[in-house]
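Morning. Coffee machine broken again, so started the prediction first thing and wrote up yesterday's gels while waiting. Chain of 259 residues, entered below exactly as on the submission form.
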Amino acid sequence: APDALGPLRVWPTSTLGGIVFPVLSHRRKDWRIPRHWSLHTKLTLLGTLALLLGGFATLLLFEWANPKTLGPMAFGDKLLSAAFASVSARTAGFNSIDIGVLTHESWGLHYFLMFIGGGSAGTAGGVKVGTVAILALLVIAEIRGRSDSEAFGRRVGPSAQRQAITVLFLGSAMIVLGTIVILRETDFPTDQVIFEVISAFGTVGLSTGITASLPESSQLMLILLMYVGRVGTVTLATSLALGERRMPYRYPEEHPIVG
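Came back before lunch.
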């Protein structure tokens, strides 16, 4: 019989692992005074909370009446399974419901959650919560017509913004490349292939059930994506941060047309 308490045993560990060590390493006295928290800590905690609650609510909406997933469950089991699935899509890689029979809308939600992943320097994969939070602040600043990206009385530096854009762009490029390669070699539906590719890149461990049926070349592509997603994003972010240097000259500025 399935272990009803299984999700409760995995949930705390996977959530803490996704929040990341820089956040958890704050001195105890800092936790008592939120205004002393770093901007990274605030963005990571707020972003994680938003993703957990948003994923939980959306999965409930899409799967509540699905007879193959949450439909037959009791009310409390529905809440627990949806909450665990929201956490697992970003950090744990375990599943309490069959991923292969989720609605297509739930697969789309998983694309989003798996691609983002956990926090920087944590155990989860993806492009990281901090990366997406910085880009969200950049978009908000542009919409409001401000030159600086700001949050909680702090300004996000231009170098962090460039690094976030680079990580997001290269991560997206890897997913597009992996999807094209596998689609060329298989006849599986595009949505299932995209799920496998993003899951591999985010080192999530979830699957719609087609991984074992893929040809060896496609499986090797997934292995490459797992390696790049786990090591590549961390290495890239570190190299961008450490490799920044000021040039002794600057070219005249122009404004190419956007949009």
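The mean pLDDT is 83. Going to sketch it on the whiteboard this afternoon.
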